[in-house]
Recover the amino acids of this structure.
């Protein structure tokens, strides 16, 4: 059946419910490059304003899921559990998390994404490791998952190609913050992985696409509902993203901080979320005792087993393990600029969104589809909410390559930090859950 894309854009703009056949046609035609980016951008913008109801979301997700191949991991002997984050600033959790869970005996076929809007992407971070490839053959995928228990890759050309194309277009067309688009994007990829369980990290706050707990809960429930229709258990945790996670924001510097977590020396917030998520993934894999699961996670870090799995992961995917042993060898831009406190007091604001946007302006993210990422630029946050500071104390260090990019970043960062005489309560990391 053939439809008019202009008519489907108009219908969605007017708030009409599109038929399953029309939605399937849009996905098939766009994947085949018969619908141009400008028309799909217009359609996605209509979805931003009008949304998708349940009658539309199911067929839309199903069409994306079956726009290409679906993995068959029946030959993998272990339980298969993955994790996905809706995107945050300084959110490098997946990088230490996957090897920790693998070290505990669960297979983690992690299919990740690139930077989206002001948030960093796991693939971009991993590719800051010299030689690391995020594209491997299906045969190598299965072998590696059976051998070391973890694979961290991007989508292949044939696995959910509709999402890969739409994901990049959303990033460059201002159509990221939509519950139906986020839910269908995440779940189409994850359901294609043949999983036994899925953990979702739904970010909430200034640096997240979901600004309120109610919106984040709606997104989590939407994704859990999609999982239920495909017999895939889903646990979602709602986590705070009003300030960046950890200290490092960028790509190579976030790899270094991830290695610190695996060595038991990571920032407290990153370590806490990583161990919490790993525990939840073991429960999804079949462990029935939460305390046993957490002890396994802590032991995998303390023994060095998780670190060893990460080194093997890097080696298997073509990366240079020397930069993991000595993270000072990772890419690093040559210039630094320090942002200092202008008064004594307590940090009351460390805005994640503004820090994320500044990192994009430095070159750590993409302003438009196809932009190159500079792995060596970024921001190190040295003070966070609740910390006491004095005049002249360093709040953050910006690592940059060009004066132009620094000037652009500083225009955003000038109001990022707030300082007052009275401290503010440090917010909880976990704000809610959906099971």
């Amino acid at each position: 059946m053939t439809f008019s894309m202009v008519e489907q854009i108009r219908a969605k703009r007017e708030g009409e419910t599109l038929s399953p056949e029309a939605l399937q046609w849009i996905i098939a035609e766009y994947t085949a490059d018969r619908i141009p980016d400008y028309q799909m951008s217009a359609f996605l913008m209509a979805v931003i304003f009008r949304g998708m109801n349940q009658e539309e979301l199911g067929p839309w997700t199903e069409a994306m899921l079956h726009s290409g191949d679906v993995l068959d991991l029946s030959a993998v002997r272990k339980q298969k559990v993955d994790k996905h984050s809706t995107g945050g600033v300084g959110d490098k959790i997946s990088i230490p998390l996957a090897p920790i869970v693998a070290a505990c005996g669960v297979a983690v076929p992690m299919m990740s994404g690139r930077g989206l809007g002001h948030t960093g992407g796991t693939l971009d971070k991993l590719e800051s490791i010299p030689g690391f490839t995020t594209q491997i053959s299906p045969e190598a995928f299965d072998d590696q998952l059976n051998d070391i228990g973890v694979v961290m890759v991007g989508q292949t050309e044939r696995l959910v190609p509709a999402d890969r194309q739409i994901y990049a277009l959303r990033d460059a067309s201002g159509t990221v913050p939509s519950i139906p688009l986020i839910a269908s994007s995440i779940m189409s990829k994850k359901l294609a992985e043949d999983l036994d369980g899925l953990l979702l990290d739904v970010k909430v706050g200034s640096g997240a696409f979901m600004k309120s707990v109610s919106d984040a809960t709606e997104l989590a429930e939407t994704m859990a509902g999609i999982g239920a229709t495909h017999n895939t258990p889903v646990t979602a945790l709602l986590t705070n993203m009003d300030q960046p996670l950890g200290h490092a924001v960028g790509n190579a510097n976030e790899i270094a901080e991830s290695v610190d977590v695996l060595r038991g020396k990571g920032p407290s917030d990153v370590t806490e979320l990583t161990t919490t998520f790993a525990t939840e993934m073991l429960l999804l894999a079949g462990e029935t005792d939460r305390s046993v699961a957490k002890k396994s996670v802590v032991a995998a870090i303390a023994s060095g087993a998780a670190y060893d799995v990460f080194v093997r992961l890097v080696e298997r995917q073509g990366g240079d393990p020397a930069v993991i042993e000595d993270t000072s060898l990772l890419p690093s831009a040559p210039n630094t600029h320090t942002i200092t406190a202008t008064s004594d007091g307590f940090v009351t604001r460390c805005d994640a969104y503004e820090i994320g946007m500044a990192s994009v302006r430095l070159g750590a993210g993409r302003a438009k589809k196809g932009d190159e990422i500079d792995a060596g630029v970024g921001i190190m946050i040295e003070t966070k909410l609740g910390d006491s500071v004095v005049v002249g104390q360093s709040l953050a260090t910006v690592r940059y390559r060009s004066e132009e990019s620094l000037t652009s970043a500083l225009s955003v960062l000038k109001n990022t930090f707030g300082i007052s005489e009275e401290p503010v309560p440090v917010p909880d990391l976990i704000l809610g859950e959906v099971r």
Q: What stands out?
A: The radius of gyration is 21 Å. The chain has a mean pLDDT of 94. The first strand starts at residue 81 and ends at 85.
